């Protein structure tokens, strides 16, 4: 219930009483935790799928991850609502998760590490 | 939509910059000092200073280390900046995470007897792992703040659409507008540097931040990745058969020839005196941006070349270049000076941003007639960080000269003293809340300590300016001169602030009356920039 209202909270510059604060908290969580999750997920996805030596793929994935986290944080605060902020992160996460699982399966024949 | 985006970014810029600002200021300032890490260490242990060019032979040091560390050791070779040999090796039961360290005289290989001090290493460590906590926690906190910095830089670029004009704009003595101009000027002046140093800083810590890629790509082989990239493979087992270690100078020359004349940076010997001995010569920072591993491996008995190791791929070169750019060890004196000035601009960028927030809030507070807790907290932290940290850093250098050489735990007391001074200045800032007096007093203290340091040095060390300047010993004279110059700058700030005691109060009132009441505080930043 509470979360439902908070997610509908619009732009961070609009005054909305305490719901504005909740909306900001939801976005901060998206930027810090969601952004970090997306960054690590992309580092893993690139590490197992990039067509290069594995040390190179791991390095490239980690360097890209730093940029991904920064970009995620920008997206989260640029999005029109807190719900869209999380939604955008999820949309980006799905193909990355598929890449990571596919790469893992190709390398080891197993989905889980 | 476009305005909405810019407003959102202005909000994000304000808060990501403010909340991480105090730690970022400390990271920037101590990181700036770290460009002169070997010089600071040499100054702080000046009784062990060796003047003149580096000794051409590493043999005396290697012979001495082979006796001290029969299991093997790594020796950082002296170069144009570091005049002594620094060695470390693993030893069970040794302090500092199982490592033992030694500083050697390159000419004799004897241990250098100098005062116990962390030297420039203290500022260097502080700038990425803080202090009084586990290095892991410190690194995570600094990484978190660095990510906030990166976000603040990107959102700041979006907010300031007139970047080129900001470069040339400064309207002094106009209260908040002057602070905005100053903030935009130091930020745009060295913008590529600020973005580079923040991003590459995160790259230096990324193995800790995002380790899962290497775990997934190297299943069941947790050390596989670092062995491949950093060459941390075990150096094999000793054979038990004694055999004399090959002379190392020809090996260093051979490695240098392979690198097209670039000098070696360090030499790692495993099992010296054993038939299975191995000598690994690693390329130094000179003549290349990247610090990626480039090693030449020799047999430690015959001196035969075994292999040249190190990744040469594009990814490894990219990573190595980012790491190398962050450390800046490749830079000669002029480029180093530019790095130093850019880093000072970065420190000023964070500092002016912090002050800007307080100046804006103070105008709102002047209108409302009361100062909130948040503004008070920010003003106290601003004063203790922007004026207090330079004063504490100068005090750290003074303590190095004042604490007795034989004091037990001397190196720790230099550090504790630094934090005691800083803590006292934090208390002082809290007691002086709300006025300019606190700023005048702390800037004056920093100025006195900075300007007094060369004098104190002249009284306590044989290597003072009267000696180092005529002899052209810039490695030591540089610290006296730079600290005195920065001290003069801070002292000058104190004098300016003290003289203008009443002017700003009028200004603040005028500005507060002029501000449009309908604009929420978070939007003013973006507006004023346009």
UniProtKB/TrEMBL annotation, chain A:
It comes from the Bacteria. The chain crosses the membrane at residues 24-50, 57-79, 85-103. InterPro entries: DUF3649 (IPR022109). The keyword Membrane applies. Keywords: Membrane, Transmembrane, Transmembrane helix. This is DUF3649 domain-containing protein. It comes from Roseomonas indoligenes.
Automatic annotation (TrEMBL), chain B:
This is PepSY domain-containing protein. It comes from Roseomonas indoligenes. Pfam families: PepSY_TM. It comes from the Bacteria. The keyword rRNA processing does not apply. The chain crosses the membrane at residues 12-36, 137-158, 179-209, 337-359, 380-403, 415-431, 443-465, 477-498. Keywords: Membrane, Transmembrane, Transmembrane helix. PANTHER family: IRON-REGULATED INNER MEMBRANE PROTEIN-RELATED, PEPSY DOMAIN-CONTAINING PROTEIN. The keyword Transmembrane helix applies.
